[in-house]
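Morning. Coffee machine broken again, so started the prediction first thing and wrote up yesterday's gels while waiting. Chain of 76 residues, entered below exactly as on the submission form.
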Amino acid sequence: MLPPLRPQALAQIMEGQMAIVVDRYLHRPEADGAADYRNGCYRWHLLTELGDFALGVPPTRRCSPTEVIGAYARCA
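Came back before lunch.
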């Protein structure tokens, strides 16, 4: 049996998954020929069963990888 994840570990996993989504998006062939690029990082607060903690979301100009967060969000 695996030990429970700590909030910091879960945040690192989700931030890594969001980075993968952005990397895949940026490396796909462009249909319209316009290049996209990274656009910094913004903070997102997430409430889970482990508690409330902040994530760094790495968006581009046209893509925000927040669908990764939805899988971990607490449903009330």
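The CA atoms of residues 20 and 65 lie 9 Å apart. Going to sketch it on the whiteboard this afternoon.
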